[in-house]
Design goal:
By secondary structure, this protein is of the alpha/beta class. The chain has 10 helices and 8 strands. It has a 5-stranded mixed beta sheet with strand order 4-5-8-6-7, sandwiched between helices. A 3-stranded parallel beta sheet has the order 2-1-3, with helices on one face. The protein is elongated.
């Protein structure tokens, strides 16, 4: 039996290769109901394959709880290596591959998205994100605003007929898609890691902090600069409060 997100999509793949097997829909909306049924088949000695509509099962796709339940039941689980959008995008991005984080999709709500971007910006690794094509222009604008002009790549429709990879600083990619509008297809974003802590000189940090405090509160300035400079957020916040205090005293002097 083959458990899959959409029996129509997986059925097309199986027919192309002359494979005839029973198909069972297994996705986030019916997983609780279908999981016991699949486990029962496995415990009866059947082999069950888990397939996804695109890419690798479990990577931003359903399946983790099924694998966990099978392991807890003492059943064997095997991986069959196959397509991976995250690794494909990473390898053609031109960005470091020795350390990377596949962070999946960003939250849809604006506040949660901003917080997630701030947290990811401090991760010392190349970032791999998935995004819906219709949201790409807005997401690139948010990433550029929060992370600054980091090098990035937009990989679209990987391994398909209209595969495209665009590379450049986040702000340039954001401007490009703002002009052209949202593309079509499946999109993966790859973004370089921020600078190592202390990579920019202290004097540069102070200057950047002074500019940021002209339009932001200390907490927001600290979060933004932590994501773009690599300096610890707490340290930047401490310096921001000190600068504000000095500025306040200067303004109070006759």
């Amino acid at each position: 039996m083959v458990a899959c997100e959409d029996t129509r999509v997986t059925g097309k793949l199986l027919r192309r290769h002359g494979i005839a097997r029973a198909l069972l829909a297994y996705h986030e909306h019916n997983a609780t109901r279908m999981r016991p049924r699949i486990l029962a088949r496995l415990q009866a000695g059947a082999a069950v394959a888990l397939a996804t509509d695109a890419g690798t099962p479990l990577i931003s796709d359903p399946g983790y709880k099924l694998v966990r339940a099978a392991i807890d039941a003492g059943l064997e689980v095997f991986a069959v290596p196959g397509p991976s959008a995250a690794l494909a995008a990473l390898t053609v991005s031109g960005l470091p591959t020795d350390r990377f984080l596949v962070a999946g999709f960003l939250p849809e709500r604006r506040g949660a998205r901003r917080q997630a971007i701030l947290e990811l910006g401090a991760v010392p690794a190349t970032l791999v994100l998935f995004e819906a094509a219709r949201r790409l222009p807005a997401t690139l604008a948010e990433l550029a605003e929060t992370l600054g002009p980091r090098r990035a790549a937009v990989a679209r429709e990987l391994t398909k007929r209209f595969e495209e990879v665009r590379r450049g600083p986040l702000d340039q990619l954001a401007a490009s898609y703002a002009r052209e509008g949202a593309p079509r297809g499946e999109v993966v974003l790859v973004i370089e890691a921020g600078a190592e802590a202390g990579a920019i000189a202290e004097a540069e940090l102070e200057a950047a902090l002074g500019q940021a405090l002209a339009t932001m509160a200390p907490a927001a300035a600290a979060a933004t600069l932590a994501a773009t400079t690599g300096w610890p957020r707490r340290e930047i916040y401490r310096r921001a409060l000190a600068l504000k205090q000095v500025a306040g005293r200067a303004g109070a002097d006759p």
